[in-house]
Amino acid sequence: MKIYHKAQITEVTGLTDDALAAVEAGFAALGRGEVTMPPVLSMNISESNGEVDVKTAHIRGQERFALKISSGFFDNPKLGLPSLNGLMILFSAKTGVVDSVLFDEGYLTDIRTALAGAIAAKHLSRPDSGSVAVIGAGLQAELQVAALGLVRPIREVHVFARNRERMLAYQDTMAHQYGLPVTLHQSAAAACARADIVVTTTPASSPVLHWADLRPGTHVTAMGSDNGHKNELEPAILANADALVVDRRSQSETIGELHHFPGPFTKPVFELGQVIAEGLGLRTAPEQITVCDLSGTGVQDTAIANYTAARLGG
To answer: pLDDT digit string (tens) for 292-306?
Structure first.
């Protein structure tokens, strides 16, 4: 059994074209029915504003599968600690023996989450999308935009968050690390007014984005709703979108945005893996509004863990 720590992992895995291709291939395998993936095991620790999720999946033909344990404690920044933490354990798909342990402290979850957002935009947003609006100003607000740069010519960023100090820190980070100008806004509607892509990156329990906030041609990626009590999108966004995509429908109905839709959802819902595997072109006109709800899947974890282990020499 091999043990790797975050410093080793960050040297070999990041927001790169190769890593994006590995996660995209995992989604495609899911779309082809080549993945065994049980429901998420989730536990809330309400007195600490925390949660713990366990995710796993096996991709047929791959020699290893990952079991990921991820914690999110959202008051941690007040203590000078990161909100997310965790590790991934890789097992042999032939013998069940532990192959390696990746003590990534949540890093690989952050990376695969950002890459999934980029993959969604690659298949759903307009190819010329250059302006992105981000709701929230945490780490995923940074990484989602950075990953978008792999698939779209991002030129400017608009941000809205409830904490102005965090917005200012975000503006500084994006300028110095990525060379991207960031405009601060006092509402989500203002941030979306010139956006081609909108990304919601919050742990909100009530909608932070409304249908009236979106202009024609916008693509929306919602990645914050990954627990039954979280909800970022007004139901009207799901109902009115020209195309609605999720990473896993059953998961979206239990912990994602579909979970909060009042009554049965009767419009077509596509899974991202299906869109990739079948080459579905869901955006058929520039003015259409597309939406992707990402609640985070075990196949992403197995894909990024296998990619990382291989680059570490495993």
So the answer is: 999 999 999 999 999
pLDDT of residue 2 exceeding 80: yes
CB 260 within 8 Å of CB 217: no
pLDDT digits (tens, 9 = 90+) for 197-213: 999 999 888 999 999 99
- Hey, what CATH topology would domain 126-296 get? Rossmann fold (3.40.50)
Distance CA 95, CA 194 (A): 53
Chain mean pLDDT for the chain: 96
CA angle (271 as vertex; 147, 24 as ends), nearest 5:
40
Length, in residues, of the chain: 314
Residue range(s) occupied by CATH 3.30.1780.10 in the chain: 2-108+299-311
Residues 256-261: contacts with CB under 8 Å, at least 24 apart = 256/225, 256/226, 256/293, 256/294, 256/295, 257/222, 257/225, 257/231, 257/232, 257/233, 257/293, 258/293, 259/225, 259/228, 259/231, 260/225, 260/231, 260/235, 261/235
Task: Report the CATH fold assignment for 2-108+299-311.
Answer: ornithine cyclodeaminase, domain 1 (3.30.1780)
pLDDT (0 to 100) of residue 118: 98
pTM of the model: 0.95
